[in-house]
Amino acid sequence: MRLDALLAHARAWLPGRNTVDARERLRAVAGAGLGLLLTALLSHWLAGPLHAGVWLIAPLGASAVLVFALPASPLAQPWAVIGGNTLSALVGIAAANWIPDPALAGAIAVAAAIGLMFFTRCLHPPGGAAALLAVLTHTTHFSSALFPVLANSVLLVLAGVAYNTLTGRRYPHVQVARPPAANALDARDARFSQADLDAVLARYNQVLDISRDDLASLIQQTELESYKRRLGTLHCADIMSGAPVSVEFGTPLQEAWALMHERRIKALPVIDRTRRVVGIVTQADFLRQLDLQHHEGIAGKLRELIRATRTVMSDKPEVVGQIMTRQVRVASADRPVVDLVPLFSEGGHHHIPIIDAEKRLTGMITQSDFVRALYRAVGPA
């Protein structure tokens, strides 16, 4: 085996970097201690009236690790803890009763417990320990699955609900996928859909120690960080169309419409004599002047609108300034492109004039320019 292969194999045995801070570690440590203490005290009190000799099981320590240190894990949810421990204990007790050889009984008990936990959707690693413990201690009374196993598990879960909620952690943590209509992944502008996530998870075909909604959220947040990192180095001047075609307040409608048609553009910034932006005129501004309640003859109505009136008086708009949108959003050339995301995605903007340091028109960013920048940002680094 080559040296690099040996090193790669050796690295697989090393633990990964811990990504939680000291505060979260302290929260988990304190929660596990308090949760187990409360469970032990109440279980010990219950053991008296029940005349039970055993009042606390060792696998509960492993359950506490999951409930308090990994409260978002599917393996730590209430049904996983309660069902996993209790059903596995029942399996272990049955094996202790029916299989004389403890080695064979232990192996079968753990394997059967895993299968049963898969089937009942309560996979919980300490459940395997609960099954093995029943065999090794030769526990043959099925009532032991109710006390101490079920009682311990319920008390620990209740402590986990209270502590995690008070310390700002969701518990129980939702594991069932939300309806498509309520899920952000299914928005039309999402980068991936629920079906995409399902397909990848089906191919992966392994148990993940993360809830489905958390996985989707992490993917989305990672994409947003990537956008910020890559787009953060771009400024409006880097992606704008320079030397944009513009018109003035007094430009005739026919001339402005001809410019749009000739240049195949949908908007023209309106500037004054110092090239400062005073408005913007779009195809929508032209169409708003027409009677669109009746669609017949729209082309004729448009020709009539843009045709110059030969008389002194006119009852229709004649120049751009009469139909332009006066409230126009502009951006400076040195502004980061990432700042424009809400303008295009939520503000309904399609064209944003770009101004220089002296507030004079220097360029234009359209949706096409912005989408092209996004495409480059999410492509190969």
Explain what you see.
With 381 residues, the protein is α/β, with parallel strands linked by helices. The protein is 52% helix and 7% strand. The chain has 15 helices and seven strands. It has helices at residues 3-11, 22-50, 59-69, 78-98, 102-119, 125-136, 146-166, 194-204, 212-231, 236-239, 253-263, 283-288, 298-306, 341-345, 367-378; strands at 241-242, 247-248, 267-271, 277-282, 331-332, 351-355, 361-366. The strands form two sheets. Strands 1-7-6-5 form a four-stranded mixed sheet. Helix 4 (78-98) packs antiparallel against helix 5 (102-119). The longest helix is centred in the N-terminal third of the chain and has 29 residues, at 22-50. The protein is elongated. Mean pLDDT is 86; it is low at 181-189.
Q: Order of helices and strands, N to C?
A: HHHHHHHHHHEEHEEHHEHEEH
Mean pLDDT: 86
Sheet-strand content, in percent, reads 5-15%
Give the low-confidence spans: 181-189
Total strands:
7
Report strand order across the widest sheet: 1-7-6-5
* Secondary structure category: alpha/beta
What is the straight-line distance between the termini?
A: 33 Å
Q: Rounded to an integer, what's the Rg over CA atoms?
A: 34 Å
Number of helices: 15
Largest sheet: 4 strands, mixed
- Shape field: elongated
Helix fraction by DSSP (H/I, runs of at least 4): 40-55%
Question: Main attributes?
Answer:
52% helix, alpha/beta, 7% strand, 15 helices, 7 strands, 381 residues, four-stranded mixed β-sheet, three-stranded mixed β-sheet
